[in-house]
Amino acid sequence: MKIKKVSISEKMSLFSDYWNPRIVGELNGQHIKLVKAKGEFEWHKHDNEDEMFLVIDGEFNMELRDETIAIKKGEFIIIPKGIEHRPVMKNEVQIMLFEPANTINTGENKTSELTQNKMEWI
Length: 122
What we know:
By secondary structure, the chain is mostly beta strands. It has one helix at residues 8-12, and strands at 22-27, 30-40, 51-57, 59-64, 68-72, 76-79, 85-100, 120-121.
């Protein structure tokens, strides 16, 4: 197995669409994904897994049912399993996600036009 480094900026330059995560690595059953986002995602939760959002560039609000948390470049937030949440971005934000490989971005119990069932490796 050849060990390679990953350039986040290079990988981010390979796509421009929003809400369509790309897989850039895997470790211990977790996918490392990059995504560009703008606007509002839908309310959802993950019954069986936690998610980590690390802001590479930009800033956004993570809306929870009882509070809103601002996340800025260089900061991250972990959303525990079972917690409803909705990311909201006024401007484009670049995010690295850490989540189990089987995580469905809109949650296990609903699908929409934002659901990504097959994610691309880049």
